[in-house]
Q: What sequence folds into this?
């Protein structure tokens, strides 16, 4: 590996990021859904596996802490962080139910559930979407190119224009940051 390889990788990432602009309408629609939920006393929940779990945690923290402006905390939670809940549900019901049971327990009509999956096919996220839909919770999929099965289950699907896992994750966090800023401005500016 050398400087040429690094330059090529950065060029490819920049091309993927430039293509992301075609998703401006869905990014805005997701921000509007989150804004509506928060203004109405609801919450934004996040879930995903692996790197998507880390991104879920990161984005929930942006809502509860702050993104760019000083403002009150916004109601958000990552369903990926409570090891006692995750291991109890995983042990008693199976890993496929780790997010579904949490949505059932803490979700309410008017909330938003954002599921992140680079493939769009994570079974535990799909089951959480089914539970959310049954409860009147808006579902949002962050996926890679094509959307996978989550595209069919979600109210809104952000299928980013990348096919390589790391580029998908980089686009997810970029879009998540845009959504955080749009929500902050809509509620607190």
A:
């Amino acid at each position: 590996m050398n400087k040429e390889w690094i330059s090529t990788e950065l060029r490819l990432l920049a091309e993927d990021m430039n293509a992301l602009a075609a998703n401006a309408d869905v990014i805005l629609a997701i921000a509007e859904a989150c804004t509506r939920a928060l203004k109405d006393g609801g919450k934004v929940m996040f879930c995903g596996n692996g790197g998507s779990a880390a991104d879920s945690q990161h984005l929930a923290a942006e809502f509860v802490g702050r993104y760019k402006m000083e403002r009150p905390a916004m109601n958000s939670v990552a369903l990926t962080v409570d090891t006692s809940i995750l291991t109890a549900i995983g042990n008693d019901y199976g890993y496929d139910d780790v997010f579904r049971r949490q949505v059932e327990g803490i979700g309410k009509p008017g909330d938003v559930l954002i599921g992140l999956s680079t493939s769009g096919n994570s079974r535990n996220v799909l089951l959480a979407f089914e539970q959310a839909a049954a409860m009147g919770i808006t579902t949002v999929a962050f996926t890679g190119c094509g959307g996978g099965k989550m595209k069919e289950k979600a109210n809104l699907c952000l299928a980013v224009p990348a096919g390589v896992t790391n580029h998908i994750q980089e686009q997810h966090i970029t879009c998540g940051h845009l959504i955080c800023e749009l929500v902050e401005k809509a509620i607190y500016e």
User: Anything to note?
Assistant: The helical segments are 3-19, 24-39, 51-64, 83-92, 100-106, 123-134, 150-153, 165-188. The chain has eight helices and five strands. The mean pLDDT is 97.
